[in-house]
Amino acid sequence: MHGHGGYDSEFSDDEHCGESSKRKKRTVEDDVLLQKPYQKEKHGKVVHKQVAAELLDREEAKNRRFHLIAMDAYQRHTKFVNDYILYYGGKKEDFIRKRENDKTDMDVIRENHRFLWNEEDEMDMNWEKRLAKKYYDKLFKEYCIADLSRYKENKFGFRWRVEKEVISGKGQFFCGNKYCDKKDNLKSWEVNFGYVEHGEKRNALVKLRLCQECSFKLNFHHRRKEVKTKNRKDKIRKDCKESSHKKSRLSSAEEPSQKKDKGNSDEEASTSESELWKGPLPETDEKSQEEEFDEYFQDLFL
Q1: Cα–Cα dist 198/115, whole Å
Q2: CB–CB of 136/116 below 8 Å?
Q3: 3-state secondary structure at position 136
Q4: C-alpha 135: how far from its chain's center?
Q5: Is 48 helix (H, G, I), strand (E, B) or coil?
Q6: How far apart are CA 173 and CA 117, in angstroms?
Q7: Lowest-confidence region among 131-135, 150-154, 171-175, 224-228
Q8: What pTM did the predictor assign?
Q9: Which of 1, 70, 239, 277 is spaced 20 to 30 Å from 94 by Cα?
Q10: Calpha distance 282→262 (Å, rounded)
Q11: Residue 219 burial by CB count (10 A; 0-12/13-18/19+): exposed, middle or buried?
């Protein structure tokens, strides 16, 4: 007897178990039929701890990648530094980069710059010298800009002009002194500039345009050579005088030569008449066109 006052058979539980087992078999068969070739098998049992740990690690790695990709370079760097300090210990001050040895392009140009580049200087060129040479090629080397602040010590500084100064007229139409912008009464000077560069003594002939006050500073110890521009009228007059002198010389030289030519012509006429009656004329060999071309090209290549 089973239950609360009711009648029940002993075979009822066995029937229910048989039906459930049949259903399970059908579901398994259906799953086998519906299973795709690339689909993984279903495990009814509990997963092993190692497999579960691997799956968790993969998910965490995906999340970390997602967060790292979302960060910029600086945020990523700070995160890595903080993680390193947390795990290994230390201070943030140890990771600060020392900027004492940092150099900009301008610092490299200042170290390797030359007032004038020679063929010897262009030997064994590294990237620093190439950068300085490229900057040198962009400078304008007709007139100089001068620093006359230490003129009493007979010390001067010169440099070539930059594109902005050429466009504004500084050093040519305005005074070439670094601290002067006067425009009137400018004079041109040639200076033999002696300087020491990379342990070598060198000289360079430099042209300057200065006002009266700055030219006084330039010539404080001894006078430099002034470059004066000649007027067109003076040039024309000199050319006319030179041409008249040449004509007079040529006319005086032509007079005796004409007299000599008359005497020679009379003698040649008498000799030619006497030679005509001596015998037949000598035969001259005519040159072909190819021979004439060969002689012409030989004269060209000599």
Answers
A1: 11
A2: no
A3: helix
A4: 8
A5: coil
A6: 27
A7: 224-228
A8: 0.49
A9: 70
A10: 28
A11: middle
- What's the CA gap between 20 and 195, in Å, rounded? 108
Query: Rounded distance, CA 143 to CA 206, Å?
Result: 7
For the chain, give the mean pLDDT. 78
Task: Give the tokens for residue 208.
Answer: 């300057």
Which amino acid appears at position 140 of this protein?
F
Residue 217 confidence class, pLDDT cut points 50, 70, 90? very high
Report the distance separating Cα 224 and Cα 191, nearest Å.
Answer: 6
C-beta of residue 185 within 8 angstroms of C-beta of residue 212: yes
Q: Give the span between the Cα atoms of 90 and 81, in whole angstroms.
A: 10
Task: Please name every residue paired with 190 in a beta bridge, in sequence order, or none if there are none.
Answer: 207, 225
- Rounded Cα gap, residues 72 and 77, in angstroms: 9
For residue 194, the surrounding DSSP H or E stretch is strand 187-197
In whole angstroms, give the CA distance from residue 63 to residue 57: 10
